[in-house]
Structure formats: C-alpha cells, structure tokens
Prior knowledge:
Layout: H1 2-16, H2 26-43, H3 47-56, H4 73-81, H5 86-99, H6 112-123, H7 127-140, H8 158-163, H9 168-174, H10 186-210
Helix pairs in contact: 1-3, 2-3, 2-6, 3-5, 3-6, 5-6, 6-10, 7-10
Bound molecules: adenosine-5'-diphosphate (ADP) and nickel (II) ion.
Amino acid sequence: MNERILxxxxxxxxxxxxxxxxxxxxxxxxxxFRMAQRLAEEEGADVLTVQLAALLHDVDDRKLSPDTCLTxxxxxxxxxxxxxxxxxxxQILQIxxxxxxxxxxxxxxxxxxGKCVQDADRLDAIGAIGIAxxxxxxxxHHRLIHDPDSPPSLNMDAAAYYKSESTSINxxxxxxxxxxxxxxxxxxxxxxxxRHRYLxxxxxxxxxxxxxxx
Length: 214
Ligand code: ADP
Ligand code: NI
C-alpha cells in the first residue's frame, strides 16, 4: 500500500517537473525525498508522512504554480485520489506550508516530520549541489553571476525576498550562508556543517579569482 502511493507520487512529480530547468527539477525533489527519509529514520519521525511531504513539497511552489501555492491544491488532490486519510493529508499540507525559506519570515516547523523535510530541502540548497542549483536558477532567471557594485540585501522579510532580483553571488549572502544555522534536527545540523564549509570555501576562492589574486 505505502509502496504503491510512493511510486505514484514519484511518477506524479516526474511528470510535473519535466520542463523545469531552474534548479527545481525532479531530481531536486528526489534528493530531498531521500535525505528527508534518512533524517526521519535517524530522528525517529513518521517515515511515510515525511516521504510524502518531501515528494510533494514543491508541486504547489510559488514560482512554479502561483495559482495553487496558497491552497496546495495539487498536493491535496493527489493525496485524496490516493485514498490517504484526511488527518494525514492535513499533517502533510502543514509540513509543506512551513517548509519554505521566506527570509526573516521563515518558520521553524511545528512537527518533527516538518523539521526533517525542511532540513532536507535546505541541505539541497548548500554544498556542491546547492552551488550548482544557485547558478542554474540565476541563469534561467537572467541574473548576473556577480556584480561587485550591487551589495547583498541582508535581513529581508518575505515580501522583500520574493521581490529580490539579486545576483547569484548575492544569493549566497541572502540565503545560502544562513541555512546551516537554521537546521532544526541534530542530523541535519551535522550534515550542514560540512556543506556550509564547502560553500564558504567556494565563495572565498571565487572572490579571490575575481580580483585576480589567484
Ligand atoms: P527550494 O526548493 O530549496 O525551496 P527555492 O525555490 O528558494 O528553493 O529556489 C530553488 C533554487 O534556486 C535553490 O537552490 C535556491 O537557493 C536557488 N535560488 C533561489 N533564488 C535565487 C536567486 N535569487 N539567485 C540564485 N539562486 C536562487
Ligand atoms: Ni525544494
């Protein structure tokens, strides 16, 4: 039963993200799914709830599906079609609601399951993969790699963060470098530490090369 729903959810997101090249492709969802499952097992969270929330966490994303981002209609319809009970659907939608990075308006998830999914999503935005996604996103949104004349905007709230059109390097200061401190599970914190170091090392090297010092 669980295996069938998970297979259906994988097929559903594969189909939905097939034309997506902004760092939000199917493989992002699939990595988050596997990492969230690992965190759930290490932290003792309910694994199926975490798996389903991870697989569906971006199907109603603000940028991909602005019409359903408030209602989570795609995720809700999918779960109902699969016969998931209403109580569990409510838990999964709550996790999806709380997962997103919204600058200073980001929230700490109210459940352990939500913490596993949020940490997994954030881990995918840092480290080597996070760097690759950041520049893929920047390119697909016609953002410059770097502009030394445009400083990063720190402490943005949700409205400012959504409006921001900053360079990919500024995105490191505005989001990526903040993520390791925002992890809420012990396993997530541990994994983030190494990925954060890699991110910082890349940035240092990039800026040295920019100045022709290396
Ligand atoms: P997530 O799926 O982790 O919630 P987002 O929807 O915020 O991620 O963005 C998708 C990817 O693009 C992430 O890796 C994120 O860091 C990156 N990204 C988002 N905004 C920008 C930006 N302004 N410049 C560069 N990369 C960005
Ligand atoms: Ni995501």
